[in-house]
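Students often ask why inverse folding is considered easier than folding. One informal answer: many sequences map to the same fold, so there is more than one right answer. In these notes we will look at a single instance of the problem. The structure comes first.
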């Protein structure tokens, strides 16, 4: 991508192509007066600086960008002046694209005709992927093309749809944890008495010669070292965590301890931030939940 940081020598080839493309249209495209344009051309360094500043990356990769054929032609024309990496970087072209086009035969007349119609569809509907392009070609132009061939052509012509995967929106619990950052660990700086705090975490255990594994979750009272409850399962999930908590409640009841007001301390694993886990502990059993800060590790390991 062309930017102010790229060397003048590597970008000169791009602007040589732009100068050859009809000066008046290009001047209008960057909103510069003809006299200003002529002034830039008379001073090579000034032209490169000002033209880069006006175009930025849009003339290389955005709307109105150089076509793949023009880029390939420029890379070949400046073979003696610059190294291959510099030429490709100046035109935002990958090395694999360059070598693929050096190996493949000339584009057939059939593909050239298809490209004209595909380009029209892409210009009219820039958000279309290959499936909708295929339907549009059939309905508007009567062209039936195999989807594999269409995808290959779109890739080679650099017309494939550039997609961005949307980041998932954080849950309400995650947003609350972020807001309360620094205030989540209720055990920091205190030495708990017996039956005040339970530490918990998942521990992976391998067996059968390391070929299989199981997960252990235990709830430990740091004030006495007593294991209030534990459970083992094939996955570290909510079901395992809730089974462990039920076992801990049963054992607390055997020693006449009410879980209400008890602090359950753990990390920010997705199990411990799930609505099901928090509803059981906070709402139904009236316990207090404490979290390690992100990146911290528990100092007390499960047995």
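Output (designed amino acids):
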């Amino acid at each position: 991508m062309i930017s102010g940081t790229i060397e003048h020598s590597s970008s000169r080839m791009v602007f040589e192509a732009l100068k050859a493309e009809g000066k008046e249209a290009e001047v209008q495209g960057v909103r510069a007066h003809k006299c200003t344009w002529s002034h830039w051309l008379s001073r090579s360094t000034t032209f490169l600086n000002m033209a880069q500043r006006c175009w930025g990356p849009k003339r290389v990769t955005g709307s109105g960008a150089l076509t793949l054929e023009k880029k390939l032609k420029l890379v070949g024309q400046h073979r003696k002046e610059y190294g291959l990496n510099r030429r490709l970087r100046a035109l935002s072209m990958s090395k694999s694209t360059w070598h693929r086009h050096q190996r493949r035969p000339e584009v057939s007349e059939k593909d050239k005709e298809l490209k004209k119609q595909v380009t029209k569809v892409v210009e009219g509907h820039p958000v279309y992927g290959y499936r909708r392009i295929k339907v549009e070609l059939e309905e508007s132009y009567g062209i039936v093309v195999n989807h594999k061939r269409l995808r290959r052509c779109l890739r080679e012509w650099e017309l494939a749809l550039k997609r961005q995967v949307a980041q998932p929106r954080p849950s309400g619990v995650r947003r609350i944890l972020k807001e309360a950052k620094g205030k989540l660990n209720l055990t920091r700086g205190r030495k708990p008495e017996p039956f005040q705090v339970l530490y918990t975490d998942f521990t992976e255990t391998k067996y059968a010669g390391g070929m299989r594994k199981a997960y252990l979750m235990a709830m430990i009272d740091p004030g006495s070292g007593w294991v209030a409850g534990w459970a083992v399962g094939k996955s570290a999930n909510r079901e395992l965590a809730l089974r462990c908590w039920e076992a801990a409640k049963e054992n607390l009841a055997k020693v006449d301890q009410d879980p209400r007001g008890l602090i359950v301390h753990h990390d920010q694993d997705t199990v411990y931030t799930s609505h099901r886990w928090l509803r059981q502990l906070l709402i139904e059993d009236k316990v207090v939940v404490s979290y390690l800060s992100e990146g911290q590790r528990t100092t007390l390991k499960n047995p």
